[in-house]
Amino acid sequence: MRIESSFNNLSKLLQNAASSSRPASIPIAEKLTSQEQGLEQASNNGRDAVNLAQTAEGALNSVSEDLGRIRELAVQAGNGALSADDRGIIQDEINELKSSIGDALTNTEFNSIKVFDGFDGNIQTGPNSGQGRQMVIENTSLDSLGISDFDVTSDFDIADIDNAIDQVSESRSNLGSQTNSIESNIRFNEVARENTLSSRSNAIGEDFENAILELRQSQLQQSIQTQVQSLQQTEEEDKLNIFG
Asked: Rounded to two decimals, what is the model's pTM?
């Protein structure tokens, strides 16, 4: 099989390298390979963190829009010419908006993590020890925003809504700053990874690098062939079940 041929080719190259005049190239290559893989995984970690932040940002954008509408309704309720029934109708819409805000803050998840329950986790954004950063999303709810009991049918203060809007705006700003920082880490990792790949090629030689690439391609092709064969077998079994 082709994959066996690729393994044999790689094995011969390793044996030749071990007996060559540059035996030190093997441990150097191994360290560079480990570094390259670490950089790749750190970039993947960063992308997950960015997706988490964007999920939170999307929810907060919806909350911000609902708060804006509540403020508009509160200003309307401040009209002394309105009756108690008028204010009751306005409060009904406010209650619906508060329910929408509560649902967004309670139900927004990323990988089963309740985003607004308060997230504080370390994101490994580099390949080595100590190359991580904390990502924080504040606990956010109707209570923490101070609007759970907001009611225009009794005494109310529009400043309560303004404070909630300010809190959400600050949270969105913090998320934006954290996202920008992590995206910067990802870009740095990608450049460092390219440089590491180049250094590894110089250390182990082009033949060795090509042998590894060939092996990976062979493994991928074998995996695809296995899946195709499995699908064909399933189709044949289905036909037998239908016409049997």
From this structure: 0.70
